[in-house]
Structures
1.
Amino acid sequence: MSARFLRGLAVAIVPALVVLAARAWLVEPITVSSDSMAPAIDEGSVVLLYKPAVPAELVRRGVVVAFTDPEDGRPTIKRVIAVEGQVVAIRDAELYVDGQHVSEPLIDHSRIDATYFGPVTVPAGEIFVLGDNRGVSIDSRDYGAVPLAAVRGIIMTGRH
């Protein structure tokens, strides 16, 4: 084989390998399969899952994460509402963390009026997640807090 051919082959293969490596270890496109995160993320949207080496280091209140659903093992996307040690409650559709009201401009509170939950304390090493579309979302209110070890990564979205 000629050196020119080998260089051409390298020019074609190296970028493809870089893209495959980035997808495997850094960023992965995911198609959203439910409307539980509407209006921030609509069903059918394609979002990017950022997969840092230690996703738990980036997990904080307000971040949207992908994790393995504890009930069916499928990938799931929800918003982190509270982290370990925090107390979560919903009173008449309004969210409270550690007794403080949390402003949630993306939530249509009129659709979930008269909703009550908790208070519950998030266990060590776990997070409490909720869908933005609370009326249809199956989330930590149903299956409890999610282990940080189940977090696959952070969803890259412009709306928080």
Note: Residues 16-25 have pLDDT under 50 and may be disordered.
2.
Amino acid sequence: MKLLSILLVILAGMGLSVEAGILGPLGEQVGHYWASLSLFGIEAALTYLLVLFWGPRNPTPFLSAPGWQLTGGVWGPAYVIILTIATPIIGITLLMTGVLAGQVAKSLLIDHYGWFGAERRPVNRRRVIALACVAASLVLIAGGH
């Protein structure tokens, strides 16, 4: 199951690169906010269908979740708008490497401290080396840009 999960997140990451490749040019053509809105409109419609056909029949009320958990949706639009604006400027490779560097750095802190209810996984030497490798790749890609 762990290997399948890893493969699925790799595929999801590939999807983000495709998304950036599509949204960057679309943002330049129709405007960054319209491109972002089109993405969220399609995502909302597809998610609605998933919930309609495969969602739980008696879900817990949405607003019964802690308020801080409901703020998670704030990050998606910010990410997509930045993605839409930055892709034509810095390219998909540099953009995705920067996203990855930010994700790994923040994820290390979230895991280490157990923020947001995550299981605590202390930062160790291997994880710091992994972050350094991602940071080095960011520097190498940015240097050739």
Note: The two ends are 39 Å apart (CA to CA).
3.
Amino acid sequence: MSRSDIWVDFGLTGLAKWLSVQSTGGLEPGDVVGEAIAWGEGAYASTLLSDAERLLESSLATEVVNVLWSAAVRRAYVEDDPWLDGRVWLRDIVGLVMERYEAAELSDLRSIAGPGAGPAMRDAVLAEIEIMAAPLAAATESDRYGAVRGVVPALRRVVMEVDPDLGFRLFLRALKAYGVPITESRYIRYHEIGEHLGYHELVVDDGSLWVLGEGESPPSSHEA
């Protein structure tokens, strides 16, 4: 199964969506990871392993990982009292994948990759983050239940230092989690980027994005 066949959000962003839904059937986070690993004949396991290992191998501080994960699941983040250690969580995810597969199978999983994201795609994703920087920062910093500061700078760092593909999916996840409105032109552009990155169209939007209707204005002076 290729990434374009995965009709749900995958990797860490897909996992975040599953964990952000209140009705997880009483499963513990580790059990949810197990369900994700088993999905799609290993296609999901491949993307989950890839995302987690990329972040673990990066130079991003644990605090930045915590900010990203908190925003992805819409859970408040307090710098001096974090509710999780992002790098420990990533190591747990990698460990759960490795427990399920033999060495040869893990090698096969790691060989499944997207089409690659060069400088042009990096710049394209950064441009979309910049367009939405003000409304996204306002939404994530002021949310009553899931206030998180520093989301936009953290997203920039993922795109620049880790992977534009993962950065784009984390960006989309934050927009969806916090209900940040976007215009039709942005919606079309996100699908164009998703197509270039080999996503199924439902990875970009499964109905979770808030797209402004004709004549409807965003709740800020910035284009959304």
Note: The mean pLDDT is 85.
